[in-house]
Amino acid sequence: MQWETVIGLEVHVQLSTNTKIFSGSSTAFGAEPNTQANAVDLGLPGVLPVFNEGALKKAVAFGLAIDADIGKRSFFERKNYFYPDLPKGYQTTQLEAPIVGPGHVDILLDDGETKRVRIHHAHLEEDAGKSLHEDFHGMSGIDLNRAGTPLIEIVTEPDMRSSAEAVAFAKKLHTIVTAIGICDGDMSQGSMRFDVNVSIRPKGSDTLGTRTETKNLNSFRFMEEAIKLEVERQIDVLEDGGEIIQETRLYNGDTKTARSMRSKEEANDYRYFPCPDLLPVVIDDDYINSIRSTLPELPDAKIERFIDSYGLTQYDASVLSATAAMADYFEQTTKICGDAKLAANWCMGELSKFLNQQEIDIADCPISPNDLGQLLARIKDDTISGKIAKTVFQAMTNGEGSADEIIDAKGLKQVTDTGAIEAMVDEVIAANQGQFEELKSGKDKLIGFFVGQVMKASKGQANPGQVNKILKQKMQD
């Protein structure tokens, strides 16, 4: 039987406010355990929460960025459950009247087609603390620094049909929340976490199958692996005559295995009721429009501008606009070198390769856009070849100086003197007369051999275009 995969996501996005959603405790990452949790975060008797308007503004900004309905009257509920990392015994969240209503995110698929993923809603809530299971001699430790950190939970419709689509959506969402500045997007620190709902059904059926939820995936790779593993598991179960149980599952990215965590709860298991300590949040059009006016250029608009202004392909524009930092770096580099396509190729090629190898973010790159732009300008004016530029780039990453300093110090200027290049071509032809006759008789592939020999003789400094031109002239003599 042929099966169709159905995927929906619930994405927890930590909002980059300085303080927590209902208290003045700091949200800074990396503090000593339990040093950033006060009486409000712990829900001690007699304390009252105060809503952080900064979290509201960021949630509204997200809603506007995905063209969603904004709830002009939203309110908070208590979601009752007990875990050690939630000492209050309930989570303050939104259910019936979330701040962000239906919206959408458009994603680019591998085949070049665009697909729309519908957003059911996004609601504000507080994060829980963190359970620590290492180094406690068979016990668990609890760090409550994260308790009360403001989140928006983004809930999609079940519109994705493969792990690739789910990852494309997650990456696009990451681009949006970082571009508008509501989240730093650092998944290693838990700033974005994904819960994946997966079910399968016979191809052509409109009836949804029983879904499972795999929780707390904190990388795109883990998400893709977990979805593929769960789809295979569900197919095996059904084809062996079994039934899928609605449950919550966990995925271990180190061992690439998954396990059942617990049976899946329903909303009524949490006994939601309106929070008696918080008033409804009421906003109007003026408030919404004031936030709209502060939004930066959105990713889709940036992609279109890159295509129109720089002549880039849809793919290149999408890659370069994936983060605001990369987009800014590309534009500054282009301004210096004057060639958008060359800048795009280097940003996506040598620069990205270097960043990946060093495992650093572009913000920490030792080569500034001005430095890279100057290097590319030397390619444009034929001072150096593209091949030599890679050598210069490597030296720049080692801190050996600017492009011009390295070119001068290492004597890397390209040979453009026609007479000198012609002399080298003549020497190579004389040493390989038989192959040259074959080239003249129609074995065009041999031209690569001769260009290579001349480049070798010039130690890579001859202008390849001039070498080709002179060789073709010699073939006609």
TrEMBL record:
Keywords: ATP-binding, Ligase, Nucleotide-binding, Protein biosynthesis, Transferase. Residues 328-475 form the Asn/Gln amidotransferase domain. The keyword Transferase applies. GO terms for biological process: glutaminyl-tRNAGln biosynthesis via transamidation; translation. It catalyses: L-aspartyl-tRNA(Asn) + L-glutamine + ATP + H2O = L-asparaginyl-tRNA(Asn) + L-glutamate + ADP + phosphate + 2 H(+); L-glutamyl-tRNA(Gln) + L-glutamine + ATP + H2O = L-glutaminyl-tRNA(Gln) + L-glutamate + ADP + phosphate + H(+). The keyword Nucleotide-binding applies. InterPro entries: Asn/Gln-tRNA_amidoTrfase_suB/E, Asn/Gln-tRNA_Trfase_suB/E_cat, Asn/Gln_amidotransferase, Asn/Gln_tRNA_amidoTrase-B-like, GatB, GatB_C_1, GatB_Yqey_C_2, Gln-tRNA_amidoTrfase_suB_CS. Gene3D superfamilies: 1.10.10.410, GatB domain, N-terminal subdomain (1.10.150.380). SMART domains: GatB_Yqey (SM00845). It is an enzyme of class 6 (ligase). One of its GO terms (molecular function) is transferase activity. Its EC number is 6.3.5.-. It holds the Pfam family GatB_Yqey. Belongs to the GatB/GatE family. GatB subfamily. Allows the formation of correctly charged Asn-tRNA(Asn) or Gln-tRNA(Gln) through the transamidation of misacylated Asp-tRNA(Asn) or Glu-tRNA(Gln) in organisms which lack either or both of asparaginyl-tRNA or glutaminyl-tRNA synthetases. The reaction takes place in the presence of glutamine and ATP through an activated phospho-Asp-tRNA(Asn) or phospho-Glu-tRNA(Gln). Heterotrimer of A, B and C subunits. This is Aspartyl/glutamyl-tRNA(Asn/Gln) amidotransferase subunit B. It comes from Reinekea blandensis MED297. The gene is gatB.
